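Suppose a colleague, Dr. K., hands you the sequence of a protein chain of 391 amino acids and asks what its three-dimensional shape might be. Before reaching for any lab equipment, you can write down a predicted structure in token form. Begin with the sequence itself:
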Amino acid sequence: MTSGAATDTRLDLPPLQLGAITVKTPVVLAPMAGITNTAFRRLCREYGGGLYVSEMVTSRALVERNPESLRIISHDADEAVRSVQLYGVDPVTVGAAIRILVEEDRADHIDLNFGCPVPKVTRKGGGAALPWKLDLFTGIVQTAVREASRGGIPLTIKMRKGIDENHLTFREAGKIARDSGVAAVALHGRTASQFYSGTADWNAIAELREALPDIPVLGNGDIWSAEDAIRMVRQTGVDGVVIGRGCQGRPWLFGDLMNAFEGDSTRHQPGLGQVAETVYRHAELLVDTFGNEMMALRDIRKHMAWYFKGYVVGGELRAKLAAVPTLEVLRELLAGLDAESPYPGSDAEGPRGRAGSPKKTSLPQDWLNSRALNDAQQADISAAEVDVSGG
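The predicted structure, expressed as tokens, is then:
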């Protein structure tokens, strides 16, 4: 499953320190809705070290004890650091959600999402639109740090460059977060208007790293391989890397990253038979996660195109895999693959997942007129708290 292609590159970084937590391998699995559940986190953890963050949960849903939200923040007993990402737009609600996590001992690390580019969030002033309002951003972060610190829990934030190139927020937001006592800041080098299109701006990440020398800064965006991570670290000076779409269908990427930190040039290059084994194990773990085979198989379908990217799999079989109804049928379909088919090389690598296309970010009326909330915006902001994925 591995190759020892010669390379003299090495990820030479010390462990990532988040409060009292030491992350020996400074790699973070980005929270991805519908992806980073306990099943996928386990697959990734088995390949390499790092910090593995749960799917994002909204503060309001957690405060209301929505059953799905409580499932999302659950962790396997052997997850060394129980990491939870919260999304919120109201300081009071965010504070209440963190109190639940602290008082009920449900998390060891909390991350706040300020990177979501989804229109139905930004048009209400949430996600990547929120840091434009400095008073609201400051209120949320200060409240979150205060509540988390009562339990000795480090709090971090993940954000984007800004709304668009003319309305950047990462510089001010990073300094406010640092001054508020966050343990680290992660920056995705894209604006909300880019969605996931184009190229991540690693220069912005480098700029933030230089501006915040006293806390860890993590880089996110366009890391599809261990070699990409090495380039980002060298180009930006970040203290760690955040892996999102690059690991979709490739949980072994964390093994490659671990090897890179250890100076080992070995990279995972699974043949088709090994990929099939991983897909079936992923499905079995999802059954454990959901306690329901039908829900689990519905969930695994989205992963099929990612797992088999670049491999020789016929169109008819791909279609059946994307609609697989049961473990039994999955086993039969996977048995129809050529298990001896080798790793296809570059065709299986590179970008994956939906990139979207650049578009003007939807925002509340008059949102860009001021860096502070007006009375109408203050009244409307709570409507931004909805269940969507963050980025």
